[in-house]
Amino acid sequence: MRISQRHSARLPLLAAFLLAAISLAVVRTSPAGAGTLEPGIVDGRGMRLPGNHTFAFNPSASGGPIIWSLDRETISDTGVHERTNGVASSTGLTATFTLGVTSGFETIFYLTAADAGTQDVDTVQVLPADIRTWFTYRSAGNPDVRVYAVIPSSLSPATRVVLAMHGSSRTASGYADTWRSWASAHDYIVLCPYYDLVNWPTDGMYQMGNVFAGDDCAGTRNPEERWTFTIDLGIHKQVRDGFALADPRFDMWGFSGGGQHVHRFMLFKPNAPVRLAISAGSGWYTVPDDFIDCPYGPDDPQLEFAHQDVLGWTNRDMVIMVGTADTLRDEELRVSPRADAQGRNRYERAGYMMSKAQGFNPLSRWRRLDVLGSPHESKPMAVAAQSVLLEPLLEVVDPPGTPAPRITPVLRIHPNPIAGSTELSGEGWAGGEVSVEIFDLAGRKLAAGTVPASDGKWRFGWNSLVTQGRIAPGIYLVRARDRGQQAEHKVLVLK
After folding, report:
1. Bridge partners (DSSP) listed for residue 481
2. For residue 381, what are the contacts with CB-CB under 8 A and spacing of at least 6?
3. Residue 134, Cα to own-chain centre: how many angstroms?
4. Which of 47, 121, 318, 487 is the most buried (most CB within 10 A)?
């Protein structure tokens, strides 16, 4: 039988690399007992970047020369399959093949290896780096799902994963384009499942996760393996296992209809290994209230959510994100008495969702993020989400020898996030000149200036420090210093 290796997310990076390097070790055992090698190709990674890859073979008792052959299959954008046999061959216990990608096609290789007593076949899908690509996810009883993806060239066991869920317009490929540069720069795999209108045409099938046969919790409850929420998990698992990633978790972001999908995913999949979920620009919500019936709340006899289940939902890490200019009642917004009870527009409805969470659980881990000046558009929401995902990675460490401050000075930045005019101010400073500096996540200084402090107070306009458009959207560190004192503050710069 085949035993899949599992890597702990807590392993140091070097150890994770070593585990990947020895993945050609004993991973096959026979039913006769542990430690007995089963003849055939040693299991390896089923998804890889283009390049030279080495494979190993456990010989059978019959012995004889080991002969390898390599076949290639390409699948066009329209689903046309073409297979080319015998593209390469080799002999020996190991074989090294150059696996390339046919541009514009899914590219899958089939390795066949045999000696006198056994023959085995293994499959490897090759995906290009740093561009939008795609693969097909298949699961029993469900239509195939095309998954648009970006795989960073920095790929390693430490690479993280984020699922970016499209809205009701179903523009998954465009979402992959939006996230491409960020993913390549920050060592993230971005997965954009495409739930097309042919196979999942209704809101119930996508926004509501296909939990019920009809829309708005109507009809019978579908088997869990048919939920689109379950398909999401399968897509992540295929990629995590395929690339031998160490971290079992993933992040999740969705916009508009995708934001609805994400916040309900977190309710219906309480054990999903989601690090952080970001529900952006949702049109309406399923809210945490035991006494509101589905779909506007969790109460439904077929769901059987207990109070503790809903409480657990509000204790998961989730961000409710909305643009401050997302106030139009456009044609895509659900307009009904029950939806309007949540607010007249998406901005108001986000506030309703948060008030429900805080009323239900004052210790809720949910956060709200208003994206200043943003209307109902996916790109500024994606930029804001990208910055939020990087927040835990930013740790400020003072250089050795930094003197301890005599008092605690205050640094204020308002408004933050920054999308236009913002003021930096300070109180409790020693006097004289205060130096104000801006650093990126890599510690590079991007801008600096000085401002006089009077009675321990000072003010500085952001636009006086930073030329308009000079700093790209993202998370940055603002550091203010005077004679032996300093204060630091993270800022989120929006488009």
Report:
1. 435, 486
2. 255, 280, 281, 321, 323, 371, 374
3. 16
4. 318
Residue type at position 378? S
Dihedral sign (CA 245, 246, 249, 251): negative
237: Cβ contacts below 8 Å, ≥ 6 apart? none
Nearest to 424 by CA among 434, 411, 437: 411
| Nearest-angstrom CA–CA distance, 317 and 270 | 12
- Element of type H or E holding 21: helix 13-21
Please tell me the predicted confidence (pLDDT) of residue 30: 42
Structure tokens at 303: 């769901």
Scored b (16 or more CB within 10 A) or e, 231-253 reads bbbbbbebbbebbbbbbeebbbb
Predicted TM-score of the model (pTM): 0.76
How many Å apart are CA 395 and CA 418, to the nearest integer? Answer: 20
Q: Which residue type sits at 459?
A: R
Neighbours of 119 (CB within 10 A): 13
Residue recorded with tokens 């020369």: 65
